[in-house]
Amino acid sequence: MDPLVRYYLHQAGRGHVDNGIGPIYSNPHFIQRGHGIGSILGGLWRSFVRPLLWHGAKTVGSEALAAGRNIITDMTDPDAKFRDVVRRNVRDSAHRVLKRLSGQGRKRKRGKGGKQSSRVKKRKRDIKRDIFS
């Protein structure tokens, strides 16, 4: 056998060549594409989990700021006890957060002018007519 062919076969790992490494199993290209289960989980993360977390974080943050503002406003009353004011505002904020995150109280957006969008009409095909008929 030609020494260059032997060297190539030895380097490529195909076939047994005098104390070579022998045949190597290689996956066909159709067995696995992408990154395995990471391809599926990555899509779920991008389309479902991350938007929920982002929307939840914005909602909780805005409600926390509103609750703090309400607590400070309520503390201007001289008869108010700090403990009661905090409990009431935190409870109200928690109810608002849960309501917003569950989707209640949100109106569905409609098309222009509050009307449902109409279907697009299909164009009629031009029928070519035979010049001899």
Write a brief structural summary.
With 133 residues, the chain is mainly α.
Give the N-to-C terminal Cα separation: 76 Å
Rg for CA atoms: 34 Å
- The total count of helices amounts to 3
**SSE order, as H and E?**
HHH
Low-confidence stretches: none
| Percent helix | 40-55%
Please count the beta strands (DSSP E, at least 2 residues each): 0
What does this structure look like?
This protein is mainly alpha-helical and 133 residues long. The chain is 52% helix and 0% strand. The chain contains 3 helices and no strands. The chain has helices spanning 3-12, 37-74, 82-102. The protein is flat. The model has no long low-confidence stretch (mean pLDDT 76).
Task: Please describe the topology of this protein.
Blueprint: H1 3-12, H2 37-74, H3 82-102
Helix pairs in contact: 2-3
